[in-house]
UniProtKB/TrEMBL annotation:
InterPro entries, alphabetized: GlpE_sulfurtransferase (IPR050229), Rhodanese-like_dom (IPR001763), Rhodanese-like_dom_sf (IPR036873)
PANTHER family listed in its UniProt record: FAD-DEPENDENT OXIDOREDUCTASE (PTHR43031), PYRIDINE NUCLEOTIDE-DISULPHIDE OXIDOREDUCTASE (PTHR43031:SF1)
Highest taxon in the source lineage: Bacteria
Name this protein carries in UniProt: Rhodanese-related sulfurtransferase
Pfam families: Rhodanese
Molecular function terms, GO-annotated: transferase activity
Domain Rhodanese: 40-128
Assigned keywords, A-Z: Transferase
SUPFAM superfamilies per record: Rhodanese/Cell cycle control phosphatase
Taxonomic source organism: Lentzea fradiae
Regions crossing the membrane: none
Length: 141
C-alpha cells in the first residue's frame, strides 16, 4: 500500500465539511490582496498582532495594530466585523494567540495564512511609518 493512502481518504461529504470548516478559520493573502485592490474590505479588518515596533517597521496596508500580549479585557471594536489576524509567518503563532484573545472577547476572527512573510513572498506591498528601519524587521511577538 502507498504511504499516501495508508490512511484512507475521507468520504466526500466528510471532506467537504472539514475543508469548509478550515476555510472558516483562515483567509488567503491573495484573496485579501484582491479585496484591497478592489477597495472592498467590507466586513473585515486586518489586525497585526505583533509588537508596535514591528507594526511601525512593516505592515499590510490598512492593518491596525493589536499586539496579542497587550490586549485589554475590553475593546471598543465593531462586533459585526471579522478580525483577520496576522503575524510574521507560519513559524510564529502571534496571530493564533491574537485571534484566540479576540474570540474569547466575543469577536469573530480568522487568521491570515502565512502572515506578512507569505504576503511579501507573493509580491504584495507593505507600508511603514516614516523613518522606520524596514530592513531590520524581526518577529517582535
Amino acid at each position: 500500500m502507498s504511504n499516501a493512502l495508508r490512511f484512507p481518504a475521507a468520504d466526500p461529504d466528510t471532506a467537504a465539511a472539514f475543508f469548509a470548516a478550515e476555510l472558516a478559520f483562515e483567509a488567503d493573502p491573495d484573496d485579501v490582496h484582491r479585496d484591497l485592490l478592489a477597495g472592498d474590505v467590507t466586513g473585515y479588518v486586518l489586525v497585526e498582532t505583533r509588537a508596535p515596533e514591528a507594526f511601525a517597521r512593516e505592515r499590510i496596508p490598512g492593518a491596525i495594530n493589536l499586539p496579542y500580549r497587550d490586549l485589554p479585557e475590553r475593546l471598543d471594536l465593531d462586533p459585526s466585523l471579522v478580525y483577520v489576524c496576522y503575524c510574521e509567518s507560519f513559524q510564529c503563532n502571534a496571530a493564533t494567540k491574537g485571534a484566540l484573545a479576540l474570540a474569547r472577547r466575543g469577536y469573530r476572527v480568522k487568521r491570515l495564512s502565512g502572515g506578512i512573510t507569505a504576503w511579501k513572498e507573493a509580491g504584495y506591498p507593505v507600508e511603514s511609518d516614516e523613518g522606520a528601519d524596514v530592513a531590520k524587521v524581526a518577529c517582535h511577538c
